[in-house]
Amino acid sequence: MRIVFMGTPEFAVPSLTALLENGFDVVCVVTQPDRPKGRGHAVVCSPVKSAAERFGIPVFQPEKIRLAENVAYLRSLKPDLMITAAFGQILSQEVLDSAALGTINVHASLLPAYRGAAPVNWAIVNGEAVGGVTLMYTDAGIDTGDMIESESCSLVGKTADEALEELSHIGAGLLVRVLKNGLENAPRIRQDASKASYYPVIKKEMAAVDWSKPAICIERFVRGMYSKPGAYTFYHGAVVKLAATTLTERRSDEAPGTIAWADEKEGLGVACGDGACLSIEKFTFPGTKPMTAKEYLRGRKLPVGDVLGTQA
Q1: Predicted TM-score (pTM) of this structure
Q2: Strand (E) positions, 110-258?
Q3: What is the pLDDT of residues 241-254, one digit of tens each?
Q4: What fold characterizes domain 204-299?
């Protein structure tokens, strides 16, 4: 079986690696073009491209896979099957029709819930205790195709990065198991559209903490936004990135976002909208490396009563 694999981030790497290590014939890897990254804007390739190059697999990096010349290239590969995992581009019907057996996708949610590009992030933000991976047939909709099989895992206490890492390996195992059993033997389970939910791509401006919300919601939000794009707040106009928080039993009558305590022994606590206080365990101030609140407060002060969340 000739396979074309489409994927971009770390989430897709275990699926590609599992295919190759189990002897499947991946004839080409399609991934997003190299992009500038970081403060130095150095051009870097995707994790999937790096993995493909380690295995000596040809790589194709179209800006828009749906263009006619790119569809023609896919057809020239004569794929029996295309497999996608967080590729990052919507596939046209012409692309989907390029493979004789169609296209299957490794999606990081228990469909039909959490369709879209950031299912794990939103599931954690929304307080879901359980997430999962669904192997599905891809159609022209957004994660609307028939399902093959799903597998779940706990999201409790995990950051988005931690959950995605676990789910990436679950998805890889699911993919290989289904293909070894024969795709012709795989079920096609229609999604119940009445139970469907869709969540959008997370943009940077969506990651700002709203201190008027309950502490438990903010704690979930920080985990769900970690590490991309990363939850953040403002302190006297400076952007402060939040990496870890914990719930406490302490309460405050101060306005949401008010610093309730700040010292090197107790760390940093902030009042939230429900009167509960959230402990800020780890953050990054402009010009500093990521550090714990206690480390930061050994040599610096954050006055009790100051307010986070305002850009002024």
Answers
A1: 0.96
A2: 115-116, 130-137, 147-154, 198-199, 232-235, 238-251
A3: 999 999 999 999 99
A4: Methionyl-tRNA Fmet Formyltransferase; Chain A, domain 2 (3.10.25)
